[in-house]
Amino acid sequence: MKALIILNPSSGKEKAKGYEEKLVEVLKPRYDEINIKYTKKKNDAKNFAYEAANEDYDLVISLGGDGTVNETVNGIAPNKKRPALGIIPMGTVNDLARALDIPLDPEEAIDMLKDSKEKEIDIGMVNERYFTNVVSVGNIAKAVHEVESEEKSKLGPLAYFIAGTKEVINSEDFLVKLKYENKLSELKISLLAIGLSGALAGFGDFLKEAKPDDGKLHVLAIKSLDIGNALKILPSAVTGKITESENVIYFTTDNINVRLVEHEEKESDIDGEKGPNLPLDIKVLPKHLKVMIKNS
Ligand SMILES: Nc1ncnc2c1ncn2[C@@H]1O[C@H](COP(=O)(O)OP(=O)(O)OP(=O)(O)O)[C@@H](O)[C@H]1O
């Protein structure tokens, strides 16, 4: 068994390297070959993961923040034979770790690997890129990623929603054309989020219906929002019933095309990073990625 650790020395306020030794010790009983590669710049993690898949590695561990996880997934995903992904979260948001209940404390995440199992999860493809959590159009995702971690752990989904709501209210509506499963709809909205799991942009249990391996894209569109109807949505968001709210359109599909009707340009956000401008072609790749999770 072969494992590769992709370590971003700049992650987690440059603390990532401090976890290297412990991680190697924990992997030793299960893996007879363990290698470490350090990233220096953009796309290193993606290239290292791609090479590892072609060199028959069984496991690739991302020791870094969400940027490193995203690149690692983008390196693993295009291959026929795909190593499992391990996540030692060193970021501020750690979306995928949150969604899969992987400990957010790096020490605990390393300890988890002593007794872990592989889980196959869906990932998505948007234009030529892979994503693990959510593609959004509108200002909400940016806002969500700006919420302080302390606020997050105290308030949970509520903190995200409040941050998001502020941005949604301040953002301009836009007209989109959605094409999915032979249906065509034109909507005036202030936010569109297309996600794989319930942790839409870190919303925790925001969408109770969504499971990381249900083979579906969960499409959530919020119609024009003012303070009044934002406050109406709030209680349903906290209880995970946002889809029942009258200002929200929610459906599932396995692929969708999103284009603008009036605006000339609008950019997307993919898993908290800048994505391509619209139009977007999005599809789900069911159970395409194996991730190490708690064995319980
Ligand atoms: N040795 C390095 N020094 C500085 N930057 C690096 C190095 N290696 C990779 N990077 C850059 O680090 C970024 C990814 O950082 P990281 O994995 O910490 O994600 P993040 O999204 O910044 O995390 P978060 O915002 O959650 O803390 C990428 O843009 C990559 O180009």
TrEMBL record:
InterPro entries documented for this protein: ATP-NAD_kinase_N, Diacylglycerol/lipid_kinase, Diacylglycerol_kinase_cat_dom, Lipid_Phosphate_FormReg, NAD/diacylglycerol_kinase_sf, YegS/DAGK_C
Cofactor(s) for this protein? Answer: Mg(2+)
Against SUPFAM superfamilies, the record matches this protein to:
NAD kinase/diacylglycerol kinase-like
Q: Which Gene3D superfamilies match?
A: 2.60.200.40, Probable inorganic polyphosphate/atp-NAD kinase, domain 1
**One MF term from GO for this chain?**
kinase activity
Among Pfam families, the record links this protein to: DAGK_cat (PF00781), YegS_C (PF19279)
**Top-level taxonomic group:** Bacteria
Q: Which residues form the DAGKc domain?
A: 1-130
**UniProt KW keywords:** ATP-binding, Kinase, Lipid biosynthesis, Lipid metabolism, Magnesium, Metal-binding, Nucleotide-binding, Phospholipid biosynthesis, Phospholipid metabolism, Transferase
Q: Spell out the family assignment given in the record's similarity comment.
A: Belongs to the diacylglycerol/lipid kinase family.
This protein is called what? YegS/Rv2252/BmrU family lipid kinase
Question: What is the organism field in this record?
Answer: Acetoanaerobium pronyense
